[in-house]
Write a structure and sequence with these properties.
Keywords: Glycoprotein, Glycosyltransferase, Membrane, Signal, Signal-anchor, Transferase, Transmembrane, Transmembrane helix. It contains 13 helices and 11 strands. It is α/β, with parallel strands linked by helices.
Length: 335
């Protein structure tokens, strides 16, 4: 390789680094700093009062994640008791700086999730977003978080709370590993294909239990029981079977249904008013489920920040907008 060619490559690389740093700085300035939230006088402190919340974090859904964190803090009676555990695959420096500048008083930790853990186990689903390795990180929370954390609330990045998260945290799981709102009126058979239902080797998984659909975007998890029961390995087993036989179409959800459906501690539906993103194909607008609301979840294809930016929002997107910390302008995307 000639000296001149080497010099050109070096200059191009330096220009790329400079440009990336500039873009990062510009985009960091697009988020407003959230106010400081303080405990009320009735709050106690210490390990027994701490609430642990896990969320994934990436640049594609960053705007939704920040809105979610803001909503949790805003409605918490004891916000200083919250510890956030962010799971991410890359862009650590940029995302860390974004959290610091947006929430200067937030108690949080970062954990690196190695996408190679699941890349070979992922089979294509009906939506590209469902195939991203980070979408499977919830399976590995018990491995990623320290052993002294025995309980966690997992939240997706496309939701907001309008109630005190402490109410969800205090739910008694009993002997259950996982708690979530269940939807037994949903047609459970649609989550698996004909090959699955025609093979007793697969349907044996639901023997002696009455499985109901639940959404994995909101889960209260007993990490101590999870670790003791080797549930990460049980979920991985079904991912390997899916890779070989193709028994479902919906990303990381079906393994959870196969392992936990019928064994979930049911939680009030108010804690996951899901499906507000519309169906997975067209993203059509949807209304709230009947009953009270503590959490709104834009699961599905349509995301409120994208619909608001395109000037084609759904009616319920107006409920997400007050928690948007983003200034005008377009956000960078994951590579």
């Amino acid at each position: 390789m000639s000296t001149s060619y080497t010099l050109i490559l070096f200059l191009l690389f330096k220009l790329l680094l400079t440009t990336s740093a500039t873009i990062s700085t510009i985009n960091l300035s697009k988020f407003s700093e959230a106010p400081a939230f303080q405990n009320n006088i009735k709050c106690t402190t210490g390990p027994a009062s701490t609430i642990h919340i896990a969320m994934t974090l990436d640049t594609t859904y960053l705007r939704g994640s920040l809105a979610g964190v803001f909503s949790i803090l805003r409605h918490s009676s004891c916000p200083e008791n919250l510890i956030f555990h962010f799971i991410l695959t890359h862009n650590h420096r940029l995302l860390h700086q974004t959290i610091l500048t947006t929430f200067p008083y937030l108690n949080f930790h970062f954990y690196h999730f190695n996408p190679n853990l699941v890349r070979s186990k992922i089979s294509f689903s009906i939506r590209r977003a469902l195939d991203q390795p980070l979408n499977y990180a919830r399976i590995y929370l018990a491995n990623l978080l320290p052993d002294n954390i025995h309980r966690i609330i997992y939240f997706d990045s496309d939701l907001i709370l309008v109630d005190d998260v402490a109410k969800l945290w205090k739910i008694n799981l009993g002997n259950h590993v996982l708690g979530a709102p269940e939807y037994c009126q949903a047609n459970f058979t649609t989550y698996f294909n004909e090959l699955f239902w025609s093979n007793p080797m697969f349907t044996e998984a639901f023997k002696d239990r009455k499985p109901c659909y639940f959404n994995t975007g909101v889960m209260v998890i007993d990490l101590w029981r999870w670790r003791r029961g080797w549930f990460t390995e049980k979920l991985e087993k079904w991912m390997k079977i899916q890779k070989k036989y193709r028994i479902y179409e919906l990303g990381s959800l079906p393994p959870f249904l196969l392992v936990f459906a019928g064994k979930v501690k049911g939680i009030e539906h108010r804690w996951n008013q899901h499906g507000l993103g519309g169906d997975n194909l067209q993203g059509l607008c949807r209304d709230l489920h009947p009953g009270p609301v503590s959490l709104l979840h834009w699961s599905g294809k349509g995301k409120p920040w994208l619909r608001l930016d395109s000037k084609r929002p759904c009616p319920l997107d107006s409920l997400w907008k007050p928690y948007d910390l983003r200034h005008d302008g377009s956000l960078f995307l994951d590579s």
